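Hi L.,

You mentioned the student needs an example of a multi-chain input paired with its predicted structure. This one should do, with 352 residues in total across all chains.
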Amino acid sequence: MRTVEPWVAEPLNAFVTESSARLTLLMTSSGQVVAQHGFAGALDVMSAAALGAGIMASSQELAALMRWPPFRIMVHQGRAQGHFLCRFQTPRGWWIGLVVYGTDTSLGLVELFFDQLVEQLLAATPHEEKPREVLTADFEAELNASLRALFGR
Amino acid sequence: MSLVNFTSREITCKLVYYGPGRSGKTTNLHYVYGRVPESRRGRMVSLATQTDRTLFFDFLPLDLGVISGFTTRFQLYTVPGQVYYDATRKLVLQGADGVVFVADSQARRLDDNVESLQNLQVNLLQQGVDVRHFPVVLQYNKQDLPRDLILTPEELDEALNFRNVKSYSADAVRGTGVFETLKGISELVLKRLAAGSAA
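Structure written out for the whole complex:
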């Protein structure tokens, strides 16, 4: 399990244990990864977040176009596994959860425990912290070196 | 907006390649994808039509390595360029940390460039972004075409670059200017992040 902010870890861990989800990904509405469980590669998880946020964003637009209420949950139930996608409001903006689950659990359990996860996240969200220094003033030399290495120049 | 994980010391930034249809946005990403070692990039996701026109977005995650002690990752997105995909462009633009505007240097595409640039301004403003302080660079692509078909970088600056941002000549098919453009926007985005965090 990896989380961008430590306070997400405990509620997410509880959700994974209770729901028996295979993969769980929490992301912002713009597709940035907040936390994940079950993915092997950091770059794969970024692609999954981009696609999950894209599905949710385009579905909201479709709902608005058709004058339907916004979708909160979208589900695809396959034979061997199901995909559960849910958007929810947090003090840090809209977040989206993507859960992949197998035959050892059910959509009902995933939904039940996901609602609990959302409640726990809302309760655990800390107040905004003061900005901390991220990059030193001389980061440009390191950026240039990284990009040169990346492009083989 | 950039996500910063202080515990694992990771930064993730979202860069969007914007511009009119067929200006070369996807070609930029393809070139980057082809040049970067497999260990430093993820799979390139392209949500395209049957004729390979971008339908929703292209997406390429890049691992830049460690900068100032932070593992730094960039997410490169393109938007669909055709005018009628505006709703999709707005979605992809959400939460962007910087934009590369890819202009088509052909003289006959000047109006399309202007229209797309105005569309970018409108969509950023709708998202509450102050365009005066938002990282944007311009790329004048297809500068390899015959001189009589294209506008020079100076002419394109005159027509498009009213904010006097950095601009780069490019031939994205052969990779000329692609690296420089990515470097330019990366610097702007990280400088902004550094300035914000020091405030």
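You could point out the following to them. Chain B touches chain A through 55 residues (CB under 8 Å). Strands of chain B lie at 3-5, 10-18, 45-48, 54-67, 70-78, 98-104, 136-141, 167-169.

Best wishes,
N.
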